[in-house]
Specification:
single chain; 394 residues; mainly beta; six-stranded antiparallel β-sheet; six-stranded antiparallel β-barrel; 6% helix; disordered C terminus
Length: 394
């Protein structure tokens, strides 16, 4: 039995900040068991139809065997450098290698990306429970009263020689975030537990800031309020913290609060996957990103299809060789199964779809198309969007 790749939603569990990857519970994928032989040597098995099957790497093929032999012994090697956090399965001579084309998994030995894998464990969440959120990075001095912000810090990762982004959640745990242009993005649930409401205080009767602030988690209602005496991070009530980045015009800021028993300021820093209270001298710098309110839907006028209609041209290939010349495959004719993925996701410089199997666009086929269908949008409730004419070959 040859092994094929399966698609599944695999993400960090937004409810468990443990650094692991999880697969949604409703994903129809195979679960694997590691059976140790000795040291770093394992059998990799799965239950198939009630029987235990063993992964076997023989030459360039990766298959399932009914009983283990020498080619089922896999050395599990941890990745280093850019592959930190991943593992490699090395057989007698070749490693398990994944190719996104029809061949799926095979045996190869070049030690590159396709031979390194991450492990994921089942989650109690469904695919719909995994929601992607984003917030726009801002200068801490740009936050105004009532803004909802996420508060994140940067930590250096020696293994990858790069910074990782970590966001404070409602419990003080750190959720992994990722930089995407001007945004910080992260995976959460439908209920977003990361935003904090920003409040700035002023001298009485004025709009002059007195440099006291509050950051209240929108979900839990707790306020950030570091104290060394009892090691607390949150308080039930507004406490009045200091954000020195606001005072000195810095892009980022420490989060401080007066700790009377120690007669010193307490601050926050990241430690072992969460934030902890520390003396001011150890306080870390934190950053803000603005959570954008959801865009409201509204009714727009019926679109004039003569100007904005989406046109689709249909090409009836005269023969198999011409289809193969344009798309790189001629299956799907004469009763043979159709080949998926003939077109890439993007467009060429001429504005036409690119053949994923050929180094050119499909302009020649589309320009010679004889049938034309125009899709006419009707009145609908939607956000305002511009619609671009698009031509696709089918």
């Amino acid at each position: 039995t040859l092994l094929k790749g399966q698609t599944a939603v695999i993400k960090p569990d937004p409810l468990v900040s443990d650094g692991k990857l999880y697969v949604a519970k409703d994903s129809d994928i195979t679960q694997w068991t590691f059976r140790n032989i000795e040291k770093d040597k394992y059998y990799l098995t799965a239950d198939v139809g009630g029987s235990t099957k063993y992964v076997r790497v023989f030459g360039s093929s990766v298959t399932l065997a009914d009983a283990p032999d020498e080619y089922c012994v896999l050395q599990v090697l941890p990745g280093k450098g850019g592959y930190a956090g991943k593992i490699r399965f090395l057989g007698t001579s070749n490693a398990i290698n994944y190719s996104s084309n029809a061949s799926g998994f095979g045996g190869y030995n070049d030690g590159k990306d396709n031979e390194y894998f991450r492990l994921a464990v089942p989650s109690g969440l469904t695919e719909e429970d995994f929601v992607s959120h984003s917030a726009k990075k801002i200068d801490v001095n740009d936050a105004v009263n009532g803004d909802q912000v996420i508060i994140y810090t940067r930590l250096w990762d020696e293994a990858t020689s790069s910074y990782g982004y970590y966001i404070i959640d409602h419990k003080g745990d750190l959720v992994r975030g990722y930089e995407s242009g001007d945004d910080i993005v992260w995976i959460g649930t439908k209920i977003n537990t990361l935003p904090y409401s920003f409040k700035e205080y002023y001298y009485e009767g004025t709009t002059d800031p007195n440099y006291y602030f509050d950051l209240q988690n929108v979900y839990s209602g707790y306020y950030l309020a570091p104290q060394i005496a009892d090691g607390r991070v949150f308080a039930d009530d507004a406490a009045g913290i200091n954000l020195n980045g606001r005072r000195y015009g810095d892009y980022h800021t420490s989060i401080l609060m007066w700790d009377d028993p120690h007669y010193d300021y307490a601050g926050l820093k990241a430690e072992n996957g969460k934030i902890v209270s520390v003396p001011m001298s150890q306080a870390a710098q934190f950053y803000f990103a603005l959570v954008q309110p959801p865009e409201e839907l509204h009714t727009v006028d019926t679109i004039d299809h003569t100007q904005y209609g989406v046109t689709v041209k249909i090409k009836n290939y005269d023969n198999n060789s011409y289809q193969n010349q344009i798309l790189g495959a001629s299956s799907g004719t004469s009763g043979t199964p159709a080949t998926k993925g003939l077109l890439s996701d993007g467009f060429g410089e001429d504005g036409y779809p690119v053949s994923s199997l050929r180094a050119h666009t499909t302009a020649a086929a589309i320009m010679s198309s004889t049938a034309l269908i125009t899709l006419r949008p009707c009145s609908q409730t939607a956000t305002s969007r511009s619609i671009r004419n698009s031509e696709r070959s089918t």
